[in-house]
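Dissemination and training. As part of the outreach component of the grant, students in the summer workshop were shown how a complex can be specified as a set of sequence lines and then modelled as a single object. The example used during the hands-on session is reproduced here so that future cohorts can follow it. Participants entered these lines:
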Amino acid sequence: MHNPYLPYPVRISDIITETEDRNLKTFEYVFINPEDEEKFDYQPGQFAELSIAGKGEIPIGIASSPVEKGFLKFTVNKVGLVSTHLHNMKVGDVMGVRGPLGNWYPWDKMEGKNVVIIGGGFAFTTLRSSIVYMLANREKFKEIHVIYGARTPGMLLYVDELKEWEKRDDIHMHITVDATDDPDWKYNTGFVPTITDQKAPPATTDTYAIVCGPPIMIKFTQPVLDKLKYKHDHIIMSLENRMKCGIGICGHCNIGRHLVCKDGPVFTLDQLNKMPKEY
Amino acid sequence: MEHMGIEPGRLQFSWISSAESTKFVKVVKEVTETIKSLGPRKHFIKTEAKVA
Amino acid sequence: MKVLKITKEDLAKGLDTLNKSFRLIGPVKDKDEEFHNFEELGQGELPDFNFRNTRLSPKSIVYPQSEKMFEYTLDSNDPEHDILIEVKKEPSPQVVVGIRPCDAKAFSLVKLNFDTPEYKDPYWLRRFEATTLLGLACHNPCSSCFCASAGSGPFNTESLDMLLVEEQGGYLAQVLTKKGEELAHTAGWTDEAGSDAQKQIDTMKEAAEKRIKSQISTDNLKNKLDMEIYEEPYWEDVSFSCINCGTCTYLCPTCWCFDVQDETCGNCGIRMRNWDSCMYPLFSLHGSGHNPRGEKLHRVRQRFMHKLKYYVDKYDSGIQCVGCGRCVNHCPVNIDIRRVCELMNRSEVCPVTTE
Amino acid sequence: MLEYTEKIREISQKLLKDSKVDMVIGFRKGTVPMMNEPTFIRNANEVGQLIWDSNCGINLANYLTGRKEKIGIVAKGCDSRNIVVHLVENKVNRDNLHIIGVPCKGMIDRRKIGVIYGEEILNVVEDGEKIVVEGDGDEKVYDKKDVLQENCAICIHRNPVIYDELVADLVEEQKDVDRYEDVRKIESMPPDEKWAYFEGLLKNCIRCYACRNACPLCYCPTCFVDESRPQWVGKSIDPVDTRTFHFLRAYHCAGRCTDCGACERVCPVGINVRAFTKKLEKDVKELYDWEIGLDPNVRPPLDVYKTQDPEDFIK
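and obtained this result:
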């Protein structure tokens, strides 16, 4: 019997410190057994459990994109027991990855449609995965907008890539920071909801918004999207809750009858409206 | 601790100021001697969790 | 279906035989306490059938409170260091003798969680498959038993492989599955009962069902919206006395939540899982410190909503409760699921006013 | 007990009507024999739910922690002592409390009655000092003093130590009680026997934490067993971890435990949890001549340093 709790052994192949506060690092992994990579067949929006023997597991969104082969990438915020230990690990260290887990952004529905990505802070990980995926399959989508904000320029993730995307004309980038005194900052200044109000395209039946960020951002972005007349089944969100098994069995992450790990983490706002606010 | 079955002598208290180096040495010596004379611990040993 | 006749002596003899090839588990009276629990029976030891139901549910026979999942070593000289290794141990075949029909039914409710189309929980399933359930019908249900209205019953055969029905001088035994047949064969129980045995059982079943005084109504649960029940004002009253201990969830035969923990001793360690309880604040606490169910009201509501609403909607197999009454009897502060179920199930009838 | 119930209702009704309190915390009739449920009443019309009998063993002080409202609380001797502990430890503000004192004659032990009756119990009626048990077997009558909770049988503070009103005249306190016979018995055992005693005591523990959660002293926002950084104690049912939980919890209650018996009463598997706490209670009594929860204005001995504090155990 296949054991869904058994992680694939991986080796850390690269570690990048993403932010100036050094609390966010991106870990790149290669599978120790090459055949495991094939089994790890994922979609942008899914997550995996990062497993460290002796410490435990944490559910983290997959930041790499299925169009990138040969490695997996995860950006991890240092908060608890496992993530703190992970931040102290080095290139070459062995650990485990279990997944892919959960559902993904509705790529089949969004094909041929406009996509607006609204992200804040370190929740940008699966959004990166999505952008890379869409750019690699550019012909499948109409207009792509990205509104991404962080507190300061030094807190933005994937800065080099952001700059690259900014240069392209097939994607509308709206990068913003809450505030900065950097005279060289040439992008937007202001909170994500404000920038969304200014830059997001108006709603059409052909436009989907993917919103991912801290609770406070989500709280204030939702009225903006309502104002822009986005329908709630066109607003797609990714949730997190305390999880253990990641496969819908241990019971930790439920919101009503739904399990964030298995029925989510991606829900439409329409679905969330009918669920208890237990997230 | 002793009330719940740890052998007498295994648990000791001492108050040593940072200036009392000789007392520190003396106490450490005494404690190790007492513990050694008690032999290996019988109880309250956590090895791999006894689980199914 | 075959019905066997087993005398008390044959039962004892048969169990003795079974004990040689199976791990035999049965109700045993705790030597210091007033209650029975399921324990492994030693050679020659017989189960004590003089009980109504055990204090702890037998769920731990298939789903131990603490269970090893993986092993690992952190010793960098070991080529497999830091890699989790599956614990290679097949559960030994076991027979649970004297399990009550409600507790057996609980396995079928819980199975929906551990055996899903997408993922199979190997630990639970392997143990379950290695288990034969030899049930014992309930002639004298407790006053707090409400199995009959919870989708089970004193003679319910769901999940059972064989059901023993006590009668004068011995037992009638319904052989319900292939596993049951094999068990009877191994035990040497071969005497088929007369043609009226089934009728006899049915009569006793009816009499037992009549003895059940306590009941709940569940007919409206499915029709209501989640949020309608969720937002009811009575949750404050229901949850006030709760002390957020895990007694209800740990005694419950149908509660399945678990936590995963690593424990290292020296260079080696294990990943294990332990029962967890939605009554504990830690259960839903985020790493950030945010807790979606930070108040005890949220947690008490979660438990009842899960059992009586979410589960009902998700699986369409009735409520996640078999009416064993353990939580009713042993909740330290007397929060009674029967009362809560009535509240959740009641239909709002607007009082008719005549002017 | 009827007169107690009536008086509790009368006082509560008045308190709520006059808006002296926002809620009254008391007991309502349980759904199974010998069980009552702690409850709150906000509406003067609902005071009829409140009752008092010998099944009110849960310590209501446990429901005060962190509450900001003005509260009327029904308090027997031990509850009142735990209110004092709360006051000493700044968990509750005296001005927000209206204590309805109940001179207590002891709570009956549900487990004990279950064992001696032997059959399923369907109903229990109190008749003064007699307890009438009806059930599947014959009706049996017990003397209440024979079926008291162990901590009640040796209780020397039955009367509330702090109150705003009383529901009845104070009762006579029990005198010449040997409070520590059981502790001495354990003390006289050789180490291995002690070890075995506690091992046997805890063999059924399922770590549901009912003992901890029923205890008014256990109000830490994060209990040491729930801490993961550092992880003080393992989370499985390994016997060493289970024992660590119990004895460390007892330490945390040293000099604070009023021996209210809530921990023992709520244990679903019948563990005599007080075997841990009572040793420390005895030690504190003998070393510092201290009983907790009698005076909100005196700091407990483990809180303060005195030059005459015993220190024989320090080398």
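Chain C has a mean pLDDT of 92. Students were then asked to discuss how this feature might be tested experimentally.
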